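Technical annex B. To support the medicinal chemistry partners, we prepared a structural model of the target in complex with tetrahydrodeoxyuridine, based solely on the information shown next.
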Amino acid sequence: MASKISFLIEAASEARQQSYSPYSRFAVGAAVETSSGKVFTGTNVENISFGLTICAERASVAAAVVAGERDLQTLAIVADSAEPVVPCGACRQVLAEFNPRLKIVSQTVAGARRVQYIHKLLPSPKRGIMTNVKR
Ligand code: THU
């Protein structure tokens, strides 16, 4: 549904306004919708150590989980980039943890949009890992 996606993009856009990105000056916003219809947002939080920077996508996942919502359905990402941003490798693994078939809608501030699925970006995120543990 187009309006639902627009709502998510708007939520990601608003979250982006809170970005703490003094080092890269690259502000990113994310919004994830869960199966209950609730929306959780995140933005990138940078650190002078660089390596401790938290991406917008992971921040939104943490917000959902702390609210008791783990069934991620759709993720929206907004950045002022030449082309729609694709989540980094670390975020792909974190997103796949909660839905290996997550839908990702990424949009630039100028309005270019790309729709992708996490299983295309990160095949086999859990294969062979901890097969001794029942999940
Ligand atoms: N960043 C995100 O938050 N999400 C992405 O998908 C791409 C990169 C952030 C991390 C860093 O603060 C800045 O953008 C530049 O990489």
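Notes passed to the chemistry partners:
Residues 21, 24, 26, 28, 44, 46, 53, 55-57, 85, 87-88 surround tetrahydrodeoxyuridine (CB under 6 Å).
The helical segments are 2-16, 56-66, 89-98, 118-121.
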